[in-house]
Amino acid sequence: MKFLFENYKRILITGGSGFIGSNLIIKLLLETSLEIFNLDKFSYASDNLAINNCILNLGDAASKRYKFLKTDLHCRKQTNDAIEISNPDIIINLAAESHVDRSIYNPKIFIDSNINGTFNLLEASLEHFRNLNSNKKKYFRLLHVSTDEVFGSLSLKGSFSEDSKYDPRSPYSASKAASDHLVKAWFHTFGLPILISNCGNNFGPWQYPEKLIPTIIINALSNRIIPIYGDGKNIRDWIYVDDHINALLLVALNGRIGESYCIGSNQEKTNIEIAREICLILDKLKPSKESYIKQISFVDDRPGHDKRYSINSTKISKELGWISNYKFSAALKLTIDWYLKNLSWCNQKSN
């Protein structure tokens, strides 16, 4: 899938050292000639190894097109400085604290990052937008990347869509819901050209080990219990990271200003189904004395654990022609293979 950035020369990716951000930047390095600015506060879940490896393989031309800006959006001055330095033609905002469990134990970090950080970014972006010439204003936009968790929990029927009401259940999803509302307000009140995307659960290479799929893989290979919350029947709509990135770029370039787009691959799986599928794949790829399935252990459920997420992607499919290219099982095998080849990175991040 090719993306035409003919009206853009400089792009700012916030949270570019995270899982989705680093995969996005690599795609942009490989497939465009954009100058890429990666704004990231570089927290525990950040890593530039994937990007650096890509630049090393591509050579000097790529290294001149990429710049890392160590910036915390919670700091207004740092945010203003980063916008001034990057002078972006387009912004994709991926910066966020995103782990539900951590939000339960320490909500303040999520308020600081996801709400106050978004506010600072909006204010700096608005000032930047107002100072652009008329031609640059015509094409400028800020894509705010959000989550389906802002819509709460579903029963066994129905799906989230752009018309779903907001009903967040955790400090994480509440902070993301608040950030979505801020972004919409800056569009309606101040005319900042924004877009919003709400996506399901991502997986793929370079995902931080605390997330479900990496946790299952790493714990299985480390001969530790594989913890599954409650009865393991919580359902999520899973999407391979490359599919999500393709959707984001389509929205950023061709989406209707002021609109939201729900992104999902229509591949719903329970947590226990995923755990068992990973174990069976590992049984073939890296056999042990017993099946890894025997390491699965049900643990106390977390507070406010949403039962089911499901996404209706009709709007992005009809308007922008987006489709999911990866089937879950095939993408899961690719992911497991990557983790098997990068266990040293996983172990470093887990410690």
What does this structure look like?
This protein is of the alpha/beta class and 351 residues long. The protein contains 14 helices and twelve strands. Helix 1 packs parallel to helix 2, helix 4 (76-86) packs across helix 6 (107-130) and helix 11 (271-285) packs across helix 13 (328-341). The radius of gyration is 20 Å and the shape is globular. The mean pLDDT is 95.
Helix content: 40-55%
**Structural class by helix and strand composition:** alpha/beta
Shape: globular
Largest sheet: 7 strands, parallel
Low-confidence region ranges:
none
Which whole number gives the mean pLDDT?
A: 95
Distance between the termini: 37 Å
| Contiguous helical run count | 14
The SSE order reads: EHEHHEHEHHHEHEEHEEHEEHEHHH
Number of strands: 12
Jot down its keywords.
351 residues; seven-stranded parallel β-sheet; three-stranded mixed β-sheet
What is the structure about, briefly put?
By secondary structure, this protein is α/β, with parallel strands linked by helices. It has helices spanning 19-31, 49-58, 60-65, 76-86, 100-105, 107-130, 134-139, 171-190, 212-221, 241-254, 271-285, 314-320, 328-341, 343-350; strands spanning 10-14, 35-40, 66-70, 90-93, 142-147, 194-199, 201-203, 226-229, 235-240, 260-263, 268-270, 296-299. 47% of the residues lie in helices and 16% in strands.
Question: Secondary-structure map with pairings?
Answer:
Blueprint: E1 10-14, H1 19-31, E2 35-40, H2 49-58, H3 60-65, E3 66-70, H4 76-86, E4 90-93, H5 100-105, H6 107-130, H7 134-139, E5 142-147, H8 171-190, E6 194-199, E7 201-203, H9 212-221, E8 226-229, E9 235-240, H10 241-254, E10 260-263, E11 268-270, H11 271-285, E12 296-299, H12 314-320, H13 328-341, H14 343-350
Parallel strand pairs: 1-2, 1-4, 2-3, 4-5, 5-6, 6-10, 7-9, 8-12
Antiparallel strand pairs: 9-11
